[in-house]
Write a structure and sequence with these properties.
- With 173 residues, the protein is α/β, with parallel strands linked by helices.
- It has one domain: Rossmann fold.
- It is built from six helices and seven strands; from the N terminus they run ββββαβααββααα.
- The strands form three sheets. Strands 4-5-7 form a three-stranded mixed sheet.
- The N and C termini lie far apart (52 Å).
Length: 173
């Protein structure tokens, strides 16, 4: 992104997000990065990789913060990668798909979610190990990342509530 300033011409900052999840604003977007929720709601099989995720609202905010703080953001690269979800900080920034689906079951018990059939295929990550460094986005821009539980819930509810993805109600015992 670039910002024109009066005295120096242009400033340039690079924003590099991880996989972007969050509220889907259009039906077409229900088939892009939030596909994992769509597939799980439809009951379709999918691989079980690990994900490094950032909320779409954090990406938008980072763009605004680069404009507001162009004097300190100029020439910098910002890796945007969320900080996991509350209660699982020891996991670092990677989340296995079936762990995401299990968290969705806890957050949205009214819907039926299908697990990925394959076993977890992630890397051997040590507890708390990060695969990316979002320090610059937090320290220079002051970005506070959205809790991933909110991102998961808002991703699903935006698609279901807007009719982009029909959800199967969970069985009641």
């Amino acid at each position: 992104m670039w910002v024109e300033t009066r005295n120096r011409g242009y400033t340039v900052s690079a924003i590099n997000p991880a996989m972007v999840w969050g509220p889907s604003l259009a039906k077409a977007h229900a088939k892009t990065s939030v596909f994992v929720f769509r597939q799980a709601l439809y009951g379709n099989p999918q691989p079980n990789p690990d994900f490094s995720v950032v909320d779409v609202r954090d990406v938008a905010l980072a763009h605004l913060l680069c404009i507001e703080k162009c004097d300190v953001a100029d020439g910098k690269r910002f890796i945007l990668d969320g900080d996991g979800y509350a209660g699982d900080a020891a996991r670092g920034n990677l989340i296995a798909l079936n762990d995401v689906i299990q968290k969705c079951r806890e957050l949205l018990p009214q819907y039926e979610f299908t697990d990925a059939p394959q076993p977890y295929t992630g890397r051997d990550i040590q507890p708390g190990q990060r695969t990316t460094d979002n320090t610059a986005s937090r320290e220079i821009l002051g970005l506070v990342y959205t809790d991933m539980a909110d991102t998961f819930k808002d991703s699903v509810t935006s698609m279901v509530d807007n009719g982009f993805v029909p959800a199967k109600p969970a069985a009641k015992l």
